[in-house]
Design goal:
By secondary structure, this protein is an alpha/beta fold. Helix content is 52%, strand content 14%. The strands form 3 sheets. A 6-stranded parallel beta sheet has the order 5-4-3-6-7-8. The protein has a 3-stranded mixed beta sheet with strand order 9-10-11. Helix 4 links the parallel strand 6 and strand 7.
């Protein structure tokens, strides 16, 4: 259906977790698209439908039937294969000409694998992991890193737009996932540096707020400093991306580095620091909890 330059599409959404639930919501409220949703726990799909409308499907295959665009946002490579090429998966009904957009943070290998599987069905596939966390998803302000074919990306970009503040095609299949790996590598080092800086300031008896106010006006400034220094200083870690998820992402980074020959000594070290945070019971703490490891008695 078209109204002027607006085109309403039939969309399927698979995976309604803390990210997927609001992202799918933006496609409905801001995008105006017709959505069919699937979630492994049916109650979550029913909750989404009660809030946004549309309908819930019993399987990914049912959700994807007749959809022009199919989105997924699940946990890892195994989850992604289960909802796509597994029994009852979306690829059973993915039609020729449709576009599958995967927002999961997964490996570049699975992205290339699903790109080939979609192409064999005459469909398009984009690996499109996101950055911006739960707040970015809720506010429709995610950064979307995309790998795939340019013509498929051009078709999908307007449909992705309702949950994105920035979207960019970065190369062929797998390039979105590789870019997300770069994102996580950079964040790991930044958070550890900030944790050590705040820890040092505390031990030195400095006024941490005054220190951050001063150094944040110079070269040390970062998003992490601006958004996390205060809660880190207060020992509060319930503000975003969980340690368990970060370890999953760093594992993907380190596996890829072993294949491509990249040297990631700091990322490997920070991954071990996060394993110590897990042992402290911090599995669901946010990534800024690296400071808890430094401040433990």
């Amino acid at each position: 259906m078209e109204l002027g330059s607006f085109r309403m599409s039939k969309v399927a959404w698979i995976g309604l977790g803390v990210m997927g639930f609001p992202m799918a919501g933006h496609l409905r409220t801001k995008g105006g698209h017709e959505l069919t949703v699937y979630n492994r726990t049916r109650a979550k799909a029913d909750e989404w439908v009660a809030k946004f409308g549309g309908k819930a499907a019993a399987t990914p295959a049912e959700a994807a039937a007749d959809a022009e665009f199919v989105f997924s946002c699940v946990g890892n490579d195994d989850d992604l294969r289960a909802v796509t090429t597994g029994p009852g998966g979306a690829f059973e009904t993915l039609r020729a000409g449709a576009v599958f957009i995967d927002n999961t943070t997964a490996s570049a290998d699975v992205a290339r694998e699903l790109y080939a599987a979609a192409k064999a069905k005459g469909a398009g596939f984009l690996d499109a992991p996101v950055s911006g966390g739960q707040a970015g998803a809720e506010n429709g302000a995610l950064t979307v890193m995309v790998g795939g074919d340019a013509d498929v990306y051009a078709k999908a970009e307007p449909v992705i737009a309702p949950y994105a503040k920035a979207t960019k095609l970065l190369g062929p299949a797998g390039s979105g996932q590789l870019t997300k790996m770069v994102n996580q590598i950079c964040i790991a080092g930044l958070v550890e540096g900030l944790a050590e800086g705040i820890h040092f300031a505390q031990k030195a008896g400095l006024d941490v707020a005054a220190v951050i106010d001063t150094i944040s006006k110079g070269a040390a400034q970062s998003w992490q400093m601006e958004n996390r220094w205060k809660t880190m200083n207060e020992g509060k870690f319930d503000f975003g991306f969980a340690v368990d998820w970060m370890r999953k992402d760093l594992s993907i980074c380190l596996d890829e580095a072993r294949r491509n020959g990249a040297s990631l000594p700091v990322s490997a070290l920070v991954d071990q620091f996060y394993s110590e945070v897990q042992k402290m019971g911090g599995n669901r703490w946010d990534t800024s909890s690296l400071i808890a490891r430094l401040n433990r008695e």
